[in-house]
Amino acid sequence: MEGMWALEVEKVSYRYGERQVLQDVSLRVAEHTIHGLLGPNGAGKTTLLKIITSLMAMHEGSVRILGHDIRQAFKATRNLVGFLPEVPPLYPQQTVRDYLNFVAQLHGKKLFPLAAADQELLERLGLLPLLGRLIGHLSKGQQQRVGLGQALIYHPSLLILDEPLVGLDPTALAEIRSLLLALKKDHTIFISSHQLHDLELMASAATIIGQGKILASGPLEQIREQFSGQQVLRVKVKSWPPEMTSRLAQELNLQAQVMAQDATETLLQITGPQVKEQQERVAQFCLTQHLGLMSLTEEELDLETLFQKITQTKNAAVVTAS
Which residues pair with 14 in a beta bridge? Predict the structure, then answer.
């Protein structure tokens, strides 16, 4: 691939006490693309975004922004990244003008009088008519534009957005989508969401995360092909301890993924020989391990089905035979 990766995350892990929030997370984001980070609430999306923006320290791994390691070259990366958290860091009592000027000064920039590039940015964001308005008097969609303004006012190369489409009405939603597509020309956008449909309209690539682990990452078409038409086994058991997936993979010499799991069901993706040929072996494994097997069925999996399933669970993992 020509050019430099805008974002490289390698084997990033983070623990909160005894809880493993992120485990060996790796992904790459190409320059001047919109890359989606998809996963249910509690999957680790916000933690990962805060690590990328240096708001939290990773326990293991590395993050590079345009080739700069964020721990070794903090000053070099500080103004390369713009961040819009799920709740925009706005001050309702300030005018849009004063707020943006304040943010620009934090990054060593004088905003007013407006330079040509700043004038163009604020015009593109639709903020020029709002400069004299109090932020607290703006609509949700207008406040989201101000949030984008604070993330872009120092013209960073990489824009990180955490659930920016949540709570917007249909008109504001369409406007923000169009705006992000236009911004892709000058910026790389890494955007998190728990709605697959929202990102399909904008993103060319995506990373799917569940329970702090990467389930898939790459171009959306490639991910679709990865899951399109694949046969999976739906295993209904009374219990499926985490270590059972690795034991299944090792003892039966196959590749297995827990795609989704709740108190009564585990969705396994089996790769290797035909799934029908694996059903009896998997059933026997469940019986010998006393997992309380209730049913074992075969179904076809596609990306939409996969995402619906992982958003219904807080437990998804990937394990392959070594």
Answer: 22
One DSSP character per residue, 204-266 reads: SEEEEEETTEEEEEEEHHHHHHHHTTEEEEEEEES---THHHHHHHHHHTSEEEEEEE-SSEE
Same domain, 216 and 291: no
Q: Nearest CA to 279 among 252, 244, 250, 241?
A: 252
CB atoms within 10 A of CB 174: 13
- Measure the CA–CA gap between 195 and 43, rounded to whole angstroms: 13
Q: Are residues 249 and 149 in the same domain?
A: no
Per-residue model confidence as pLDDT tens digits over 34-71: 999 988 777 889 999 999 999 999 999 999 999 999 98
pLDDT single digits (tens) 240-285: 887 888 888 787 777 777 767 777 777 776 655 566 677 788 888 8
Pair (232, 271) in one structural domain? yes
Last-in-domain residue among 222, 241, 268: 222
Full strand arrangement of the beta sheet holding 60-65: 19-30, 5-16, 60-65, 68-69
Cα 41 from Cα 191, distance rounded (Å): 14
Among the candidates 222, 239, 266, a domain finishes at: 222
Taking the CA atoms of residue 143, residue 180, residue 82 and residue 41 in that order, the dihedral angle to the nearest 10 degrees is 80
The per-residue pLDDT for range 104-131, each reduced to its tens digit, is: 999 888 888 889 999 999 998 999 999 9
Query: Token pair for residue 213?
Result: 């682990």
- Which residues pair with residue 128 across a beta bridge? none
Residue range(s) defining the domain that contains residue 74: 5-222
Question: What is the pTM (predicted TM-score) of this model?
Answer: 0.77
Q: State the total domains in the chain.
A: 2
Q: Residue 14's pLDDT band (boundaries 50, 70, 90)?
A: very high
